[in-house]
Amino acid sequence: MAEIKLDSLIKSYGPDQVLHHVGADIEDGEFIVIVGPSGCGKSTLLRMIAGLETITSGEVSIGGKVVNGLEPADRDIAMVFQNYALYPHMSVRQNMAYGLKIRGTPKAEIARRVQEAAEILEIGAFLDRKPRQLSGGQRQRVAMGRAIVRDPQVFLFDEPLSNLDAKLRVQMRLEIRKLQKRLGVTSIFVTHDQVEAMTLGDRLMVLNGGYVEQFGTPIELYDRPETVFVAGFIGSPAMNFLPAEADGGVVTLANGVSLPGAEGVRGKITFGVRPEHLVPDAAGPIRVQVQVFEALGANTLVHGVLEGTDTELVVSLPGHETPTPGDVLCYAAPGEHHHLFDAESGARIAP
Amino acid sequence: MVEKRPGFTIVAHIVLIFGVALVALPVWITFVGASHDGARMLQAPIPMWPGDQFFENLRQTFFGRGLDGSRTAPVWMMMFNSLVMAMMIAVGKIAISLLSAFAIVYFKFPFRMGFFWLIFITLMLPVEVRILPTFEVVADLGMLNSYWGLTVPLIASATATFMFRQVFLTIPDEMLESARIDGAGPMRFFWDILLPLSRTNIAALFVILFIYGWNQYLWPLLITTDPDMMTIVVSIKQMLEASEQTPQWNIIMMTALLAMVPPIFVVIAMQKLFVKGLTETDK
Fold it and tell me: How far is A34 from chain B (nearest CA, A)?
């Protein structure tokens, strides 16, 4: 168990810099999720922490010790890979024991630890099977088991759930969360799935194009996204962005409709509001021309455009609604749910 | 057949049976020849059905001095020589190719691709092409008439190196990374992970290389002058040229028959792994 410190990490491949000054202080026992679209550098960052990728500049410390120059095996970490990377010719038991065997752990101790991990993960029944005789979910457990038996200071997960089907993914997600809380091991989990990120992480690091966009708790990210990117990435369906003009207390949308807000802000802005925060209101200023709707059962997603423009908009309504395409529906957007971003930089300006 | 037409099936069978007969006929004649006495084999027409001298010939060929005046060692000794040569070539080629493929796939060193192509280019230089310089080298090293001389010049193999390279490339990188995190060093990774994963490919290659080694003719012919070091494949030709004698066909055919046995054994024993090694892609 240990805290991890990332200090101004940079990764370059030749002249291309793919990670820019990534810094973070991760506390002991924390579950950190690194999330971002593919190609944002999240796996590279994880692999740098693991020691599988060289560090161009900056420092990684685990438990107060700088580990830049250490081999992966000496960093006291365990990693779960996306394709599990189980050794196909070894039984589950051998797979789990391999790391301990190399370290020269006594046989009795290995057997005890494997047994213990197998009980935690409920894989005791197939310890003597080969990985190819197991289902995806079972392999996933074995990969976790291989990490647990080592009793490392840090768990690293590289998109471990993306090879599972949707139902199993939800189930494993919960189990990983419970397991991590139970063992209290500092963990870093990489994913591109924002739902996975929100449900798993104590704190999320949103990466985009090699930059950290925001680092905070899931609710912070949801309530106060610092950039347009985070606002659009966190939350499903994604936030609506409407180009607008602010004039010190009045926000004017592209179709000329004004609504109060944005005190002290002037100039071009991006006005953001989440689909679930738009409330039906016959006198509401946000008029949406319906195109299609998706009935999800618990709620209905209405896709349309802001009347008089071609800015697309999504509204999430509770229950069953059956709007007719072409109709215009009116919504109010309560002031506390406004998100205003600078139109140029995408940075949050208010509230 | 995809189509179900009886006429088609019959034609297909006729063609196949004809093909089998064509391949099997020489083997049959060898077998028949090995089962008659020497005198019978010299009369025309040659017999087409087995005689009763098979075991007598076998005894004489296998344990006797082989053929009078042909300067050959007993056949069991030549079979032993062939076996040693084929085994050394097969095992040596596999060992060296595994290691060079391991180096080329998993290590970054200057001119890596250069070395790979260098190995690859040797495909264009089989023994027959470089036979004079190679003979010179072997002779200077004093390896004439020795197992080393028989095998060492044939051991380097671009084909096998290339094949193992392809096998290693199909093994996901995560396997290596996982082993690194588990604390396995390079040689440990090689022994514990790569070797077991290449098992079937090694078996397939062993079959091919064993037969390649067993069938070597030109090279052993050149460097063995001592009858005690002669291989069985070479000896068959030597027997034909036995000085001042009519060829003893019964003995020669028996020798030929015996020369076929070990490769057949290897193929049968490793058939399962062999097919797996050539077809299996799942790693």
Answer: 20
> What is the CA angle B124-B128-B134, rounded to 5?
95
- Chain B: give the shortest CA distance to residue A130, in Å: 13
Give residue A2's pLDDT band: very low, low, confident or very high (50, 70, 90).
Answer: confident
Q: Can you name the residues that pair with A155 across neighbouring β-strands?
A: A78, A187
What is the edge-to-edge ordering of all strands in the sheet holding A299-306? A279-280, A328-332, A286-295, A299-306, A312-318
The verdict on a CB contact (< 8 Å) between B177 and A87 is no
pLDDT at B15: 94
CA B239 to chain A, closest CA, distance in angstroms equals: 50
Q: Which residue of A has its CA nearest to B175?
A: A85
> Helix (H, G, I), strand (E, B), or coil: what is residue A70?
coil
Cα R_g (chain A), whole angstroms: 24
How far apart (Å, rounded) are the C-alpha atoms in residues B59 and B251? 10
Out of B175, B181, B188, name the one closest to residue A79 (CB): B181
Residues of A within 8 A of B196 (CB-CB) are: 89
Contact A224, A230 (CB under 8 A): no
Counting residues of chain A whose pLDDT is more than 70, the rounded percentage is: 99
* Residue B218 burial class via C-beta count within 10 angstroms: exposed 0-12, middle 13-18, buried 19 and up: exposed
3-class SS at A28?
coil
* Dihedral (CA of A322, A328, A330, A331) sign: positive
Contact B181 A132 (CB under 8 A): no
Report the alpha-carbon distance of residue A46 to residue B105 in Å, rounded. Answer: 24
Going along chain B from its start, the domains and CATH numbers come out as: 34-281 (1.10.3720.10)
Please indicate whether, in this complex, the C-beta atoms of A79 and B199 are within 8 angstroms of each other.
no
List A330's β-bridge partners, or say none: A287
Q: Which of A73, A93, A68, A77 is nearest to A6 (CA)?
A: A68
* pLDDT tens digits, A9-65: 899 988 888 989 888 899 998 999 999 998 888 899 999 999 898 899 999 999 888
Name the residue of chain B whose CA is nearest to A104's CA: B183
In sequence order, which ranges of chain A are alpha helices (DSSP H)?
42-50, 92-102, 107-121, 136-149, 166-183, 194-200, 218-223, 228-233
Nearest to A223 by CA among A347, A341, A339: A339
For residue A4, list its beta bridge partners.
A26, A62
Report the chain A residue with the minimal C-alpha distance to residue B184: A102
Q: What SS3 class is residue A182?
A: helix
For B229-255, give one letter per residue: b (16+ CB within 10 A) or e: bbbbbbbbebbeebeeeebbbbbbbbb
CA distance B277 to A1: 45
Query: What's the token pair of residue B139?
Result: 């002779």
Per-residue tokens: A168: 């199993």
Nearest Cα of chain B lies from the Cα of A175 at a distance, in angstroms, of: 22
Which residue among B181, B182, B184 sits closest to A50, beta carbon to beta carbon?
Answer: B181
- Please state the ipTM of this predicted complex: 0.81
Nearest to A270 by CA among A293, A235, A291, A242: A242
| Tokens of residue A260, six digits | 């109060």
Q: What is the DSSP letter of A201?
A: -
**Pick among A77, A87, A156, A158 to test the B interface (most B CBs inside 10 A):** A87
Indicate the residue of B180, B193, B283 with minimum beta-carbon distance to A72: B180
